[in-house]
Amino acid sequence: MSISNLIDSERTVYIRLRDKAVQYRFMSDAEREGITYSDGSSPTGRAAEDIMALHPDKTIAFLGWAGRVRYHHIKDTAVNIDYAEYIGEN
């Protein structure tokens, strides 16, 4: 399963990372696929949070407080992926 396959060309995809093991796996997978933070930093150089944003330009980001408010407001209509389920680790 590729993170790059989750990228939507028009909008942000929200990736839910339910525990530390899944967070570590996501960040490692992202780095292996060449996904970075918008400043070019490596994903494994920072700790993940329980929800990460995956942008169309193949970057990831923390949500911050405003992003979390927005996420909870639109989560029923946003592209929202449980990464553990996506990689088959239910």
How is the topology of this model organized?
Blueprint: E1 13-16, H1 20-32, E2 36-37, E3 51-54, E4 59-62, H2 64-74, E5 79-82, H3 83-86
Parallel strand pairs: 1-5, 2-4
Antiparallel strand pairs: 1-3, 3-4
Question: What would you say this structure looks like, in words?
Answer:
This protein has 90 residues and is α/β, with parallel strands linked by helices. It has one domain (4-86). Helices cover 31% and strands 20% of the residues. The protein has three helices and five strands, in the order βαβββαβα. It has helices at 20-32, 64-74, 83-86, and strands spanning 13-16, 36-37, 51-54, 59-62, 79-82. It has a five-stranded mixed β-sheet with strand order 2-4-3-1-5. The protein is globular, with a radius of gyration of 12 Å. The protein starts with 12 loop residues before the first strand and ends with a helix. The mean pLDDT is 92.
> What is the helix fraction of residues, given as a range?
25-40%
| Spatial order of strands in the largest sheet | 2-4-3-1-5
Shape: globular
Strand content: 15-25%
Give the CA-CA distance, first to last residue: 14 Å
DSSP strand tally: 5
Q: Please tell me how large the radius of gyration is.
A: 12 Å
The chain-level structural class is alpha/beta
Low-pLDDT runs: none
Query: What is the average per-residue confidence, as pLDDT, rounded to a whole number?
Result: 92
Total of domains:
1
Main β sheet profile? 5 strands, mixed
Order of helices and strands: EHEEEHEH
* SS element count, helices: 3
